[in-house]
Amino acid sequence: MPKRALIEHRPWLLASIAAAVAFYFLRDNPIGEIWLMPLKGAGVALLALYALRRAGGTDGRLLGLALGLGAIGDMLIMLEVLWGGAAFFLAHVAAIALYIRHPREEPTGSQRAAALALLLVTPFLCWLLSGSVQVGLYGLSLGGMAAAAWLSRFPRYRVGAGAVLFVVSDLLIFGEMGPLALDTLPGLLIWPLYYLGQFLIATGVVQTLRGERLATAWQQ
């Protein structure tokens, strides 16, 4: 898409990217976490506004809800991990509700196998890396979200891949609780992987829904 069209029609995406990049480079700034909370939440909150404005209808509201709860989780987790985890759990439930409204017709055996692996392996790895049963239970919602995205009719290499990036980002967080506690690499990758995942999910779903809506209007 030309740069001018992006500026005119996707201001929420540009603002979201700017907020996400700013947080990444300021996250260790001595101004303190409380002051960085709004900036951290703004990245995905602006994606939620983009979804609500561009998609509309029940699907747009579900996507906006999932992204909005994710933005709340981004902020709350800076105060208390349990609060942030609860918000993300609800975000995954909203995302699952969206994806199961749009199942893929006749998924292949490999697609079904990948979804099953995401559903079962994700919570196991969450528990294994963190040593926490609560985190393992959270992993059920995370894996369920990724599996539902993979089996939805939304593009796998955008929405499905975005969901997988979300999973990888969370696994790195849980890895920091245990075997990766002294490794600096997870801290560098968690936010970029998470935000890119949310960005791919938001844009993939919105553009699919809008494309279908425009095609239907054209046929009429």
TrEMBL record:
GO CC aspect terms: membrane
Localization (cell): Membrane
Record-annotated membrane-spanning stretches: 12-27, 33-50, 62-79, 85-101, 113-130, 136-152, 159-182, 188-206
Domain of life: Bacteria
Alphabetized GO MF terms: hydrolase activity
Keywords, in A-Z order: Membrane, Transmembrane, Transmembrane helix
Transport among keywords: no
Membrane topology: Multi-pass membrane protein
Family statement: Belongs to the TMEM86 family.
Classification via PANTHER family: GH04784P
Descriptive protein name: Lysoplasmalogenase
Organism expressing this protein natively: Erythrobacter litoralis (strain HTCC2594)
